Amino acid sequence: MAPTSRVLLAPITITPSKPLTPSHLKGLLWADVMFRATAQLAEVTFRYSHTTYHRTEQVVGFWEFLDRTRGDTDYGSLSEEEIGELYVGYRKEDTRPAAAALRPYEEAIERTGFVHPASTRVLELWSGHYRRLGLHDPGLLAHQPPEFGLEEVIEHLVATGMGLDHRDCGGPVYLDATPFGLPLRQIVDADGRPNYLACALRELLPLAPRYDEIVMLYDRDLDPDYQLLERVLSDRGPTVHRVPIGRTPIEGRITSARHGGWHGYTVDALLHAVGDDHPPEARLLGLRLYFIATLGPGQQQSFRHDLLRKSLARAEQLLSRAQTPPLPDRDALLAALTPHRRDHTHVDPYRLTSSLLRRGRTPPDRSLLTTVFT
């Protein structure tokens, strides 16, 4: 028997400072279906650590802003929207906090795993959304520090000819993949603050040699950074796959959640609108049909409640027609999943989910729906 492939699934994390929006939900559902489907065919690790990325300026800067402007606020009773409005206020500030103001937060994160009460509150609320959405929880509230420190990352890059460390002359640190036709990219500023890419390297560099395949799901606007990640990680041995996912426009516009404009379109509002008009299984399947198959990997289609309702109705039909497979459940499941792997180990969520909607196809096996989608 061939050895089981080892797959590391590493979706981009969402900053715990705002409500989840349709764009966030799309990415979460893609990752969930990929994980649950691929786990039937390989040994899969779902790595999703908020701890790793708390040191980025957009997180610790927000925490410093809250403590400076709000004092001892009790965040335990605030909603995602209320905390999100505070985040919008932070992003509107003309200046970014000084390095000295952020250093105590950075040290607390590294030393004790500190999380600001505002972000803890957001993550607690998200945990509730995950349960309602049937999502695998990879440890939203867990302390999951990266194995490499920042110095180890820089030393590795310099040693392999892919790092330029100018800190000895008061400058920044760069990831240098220019010999491969990729742009020079700063990963640590002159004050020693790492950006998102540096944090991703802290997390993924030590993990990479343990896996045969790494799959990274991310916002397509970040493709240049993920091309760099692919280049660095592939040198550690695994095959690296990038899966960019387009955002979901709201009324024809794509805007970052940092600018607000999400009122009425948060995941909480969406789940409230869906209500209890459909059985739980149909609700879970319908959401996946809409956000994966209907919206697809691009970002051309705006979010539409009417199409979501159609997907929920279609999910009820699929579940009512689903058949008990003639083969043992395990064999039927593998037969349903394998065609959607292409030349890689992981299952393509779009191909798999779209296949459920193909005209003229035989009713799906219940084992596929219950194991992967509901």
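The above is record 1. Record 2 follows with the same two-line structure.
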Amino acid sequence: MEPFKNKISPDLVKCLGLHIERHLQGFDRASYEAAILAELDKLELKQRARLIADETGKILPDTLDAKFHVLRSILHPLENEGVDRASNCEGIRGWGMMPLGMVVTDHGLDDFEKSFALLKDMTKRATAEFEVRPFLDKDQERALTIMTPWVKDDSVHVRRLVSEGTRPRLPWGMRLNKLVEDPSPTLPLLEALKDDPEEYVRRSVANHLNDIAKDHPDLVADIATRWLQGADRNRQKLVRHACRSLIKQGHAATLTAFGLKPPEITVSGPNIKTPRVTYGGAVSFGIELRSSGRTAQDLVIDYLVHFMKANGTLAPKVFKWTKVKLEPGETVSLSRDHAIRPITTRVYYGGTQAIGLRINGKDFGFSQFELVMDGT
């Protein structure tokens, strides 16, 4: 897969130079492009965007109105297209919005109305989810007052921006500490968007709620309980995705919202089939469940891999597995392979690891296996 940083490419820099030249008298296109291209290749994604934003800010006119006029003039005429649509001879869009949005944030924090109007136009050509956040941090009430009517906007990108831009813990974005502490100001926005006709928007609502769940799990469980009443398939999917972390954690109120009761079962396992696993292979295990309840029960089955840390202790990581409906007295056998291969988010250490189960939030079993690293 091509690195994301390559989205902010020399071709994009040259395309920006082309369009700025068309709308800014006296612009030295060659010097502008040379200043950026001399440094671009050695930088990562956000650093590349930052470099372009800084160089663009230097060459724009002095007044905010004139700056924003140039930025708006170079936008691609087509709106509401995907983030990955490349800029071209018609205008800037897609990943080109990242550095241009930074310019708005750099120069427009003292004029919310003009800045939000431009960011609204920009988000239709990709997203301005990172750029609205400094405004929310500076004056949350004022920013939300501007954004609230956007829940009814015709543009799917604008509606999504309402939810995504206000997420308390947006990945890659600055943390909105006021909303981490008290998420109540954004709850009416999520309420208005929960049945949006576009999954792109509903997915954002779910991720926003998942952010809130990290600090206010009971609040999200209450919302899930309410939203699931009479919910259609789309809203059910939204709520499941919103509560994914709480379900993995076995949060009792959340499990109750989904009708999941404490399991009445006997468990055999997990039974490790590969007691010695070489790095790059997979640990195989099986379980057997037998219902001891008097009525049918729905079971959400996850498993935990207790990975060895550098200090020799074990740290569990929860993985989704499956769902089963178990009738009274019924027995079911399940098996699973979990690959242990290189990933960017984990460093593996050889030695004793373990597998456990989490069923409807309750933990069962602890079976060990040995992980053998290369050359050991």
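Residues 45-59 form the longest helix (15 residues).
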